[in-house]
């Protein structure tokens, strides 16, 4: 345990310690930013996938609207063609009227069935869109939480680095005091006065366990 403390003390008092700490801080910062960038890319990819799903759903809605318009246009064209072809006699008109009723009924049934299917699809798509909106909200919330967590982590790292720098400054101050006491104890007596010298013992040195 004492050996570990001595190694730590030597590491902290090494002349290149400040540069090493700065390099460590830079490496931690880069790694932190890289991890956050990767997570942000993942969230962006998920958002892009949802945009694709929404675009596909919108295309299906447009296709349903187009198909509905085609059916209505077909009904109108067929009615106009039938009226033009059988307008010469009442009998033909009556027959054509019956025929048109049958055609209209058939197309109406087809249109009604299509509208039911379209309503069901629209309801399903509405549910999926609601789920996508909820997922989007959750992703945004996770994104905000990730940013807040990153900031707190960065502040914690900065605080720890500040403590290390303060610790180094305290060590340098204590070592300066010990060195000054040691040098003053070796000064020769002045003006003929006999001055006692005091050897520096291990008690005068800073205790590494208190650092």
TrEMBL record:
Residues 182-211 are annotated as: Disordered. This is Autophagy-related protein 17. The lineage of its organism: Eukaryota, Fungi, Dikarya, Ascomycota, Pezizomycotina.
